[in-house]
Amino acid sequence: MKHHRGLTVLAFAGVLAAGLSAAAQQASQTASHDPEESQQAERGKQLYAERCSHCHGFNMVSAGDVTFDLRTFPRDQRERFFESVTNGKDRLMPPWGDVLSQDDIADIWAYVQSRGK
Ligand code: HEC
User: What is the pLDDT of residues 29-38, one digit of tens each?
Assistant: First the structure.
């Protein structure tokens, strides 16, 4: 279950959904006022914990020095976020384009927007 390479976006979403509580799932489907954004951030948080936290820090609190503190990532630079996450940066930040779908990255972006709150 470590690698989702080759799975469709839907399958991957299913794997993630299985990790969420059934109650939360149901609520999200029935409650129309439930902001989709917070659900996205919730999924992004899980992805972040799996894929990014060992470098970028628990709850996005960077251990310091080299690693970008994602809480300070400019909110108006969505393009740059997708570019850097998909293709990596400076050989320090690994590329995720073949591991994460664009939807996954969008979820993580939503989480980054939340500043870990
Ligand atoms: C192996 C450690 C490592 C992992 C894992 C990692 N990163 Fe990074 N990341 C870095 C480092 C180091 C930098 C700073 C790169 C630089 O600017 O030279 C960075 C930079 C970034 C940046 C800023 C790029 C920019 O445009 O300046 C973003 C956004 C980012 N990471 C997101 C993520 C996300 C999202 C994940 C999980 C999918 C992730 N990173 C996983 C090490 C990592």
Answer: 444 445 777 8
